[in-house]
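WARN retry 2 of 3 for item q-0093 after timeout on previous attempt; input resubmitted unchanged.
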Amino acid sequence: MNQPRPLFIGIMSGTSLDGIDAVLASIGSNGAARIEAARSVPFSEDLRKALFDLQSSGPDEIHRENEAANALAQAYGDLVNALLKHAGKKPSDITAIGAHGQTIRHQPQFGYTHQTLNPALLAEITNIDVVADFRSRDLAAGGHGAPLVPAFHAQQFQSDVDVAILNLGGIANLTLLPKTGEVKGFDCGPGNMLMDAWIERHQQKSFDKDGAWATEGKLHEELLTRMLSDPFFKKAPPKSTGRDDFHLAWLEKHIGNEVIQAADIQMSLLHLTAVSALEALILHAPETQKLIVCGGGVKNTALMDLLRTKAPQLEIISSDSVGVDAQLVEALAFAWLAWAHKEKRPANLPAVTGAKGLRILGACYPA
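OK item q-0093 returned
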């Protein structure tokens, strides 16, 4: 008789600061994960602002961060309880929650990264074990602590052809899955983050739906060249990045005193995301035949069209086409990371993060 697959919940709120995704996943003994139910909610405006303000230094940071960590745990807990109700499950049915928290600093060159969350409060609210703080063990072993998802991608998307996974969240990252050989992965540059910030400044919208505003503009070649000259793009993996590196002040530095139409800048940012990802893919995995795209950027039809135009030799598909909702891949990955922690299985890839070896990731807060 087949034993029931244990259930885990994965929660993700990414660099885009648009909201929270939660999935209920069943995971087999071999690590194969399947989404059984999912729920997503936008951030409240107060919580979004609190988390955004913590991305840079400011007064009374310790107090403000702890307030935000508690509020984030409450928002996570409310979503978990709604997901359980939707799925007809009880807390006792769930082995653990994998919760990443919200990255507010990522400085691996100084040996630290920080994701704000009160996981003990989340365990208290949900009455479920919570596994959190996934990055710090890899950092302690000399790694970047990021990206975290390539081990999960290797489990979920390995193929009989050379495949790459492009995650288009706030930051874009690549996982390289050759049909034979070592899995690799790295952050390749900004994903949606700069485009979101630019349209919010000019149109008070949180994102550019379908890339419609970008398509009203035209590419500013010189601006794109200046942005692509940033040393990060030439840096060899392992490498990771975040809001610490790519932000509106960074963009303004590259614009300088030149007068450029706002829509032209949006179109140039669209090209920055596509070109930086494809150039990294060609440099590090030229034999790739299939590119599976996931993350919120999949909904940007102008961005997807640009990727296909610039890389006609690739089969470019959404992860929806291979059975995983593109917007839920990272949430599913954190359910899988919680499973790996409970199974005492290493979940980092030294070739990806630069760590000295395999490590079991996360810290558990029992219910």
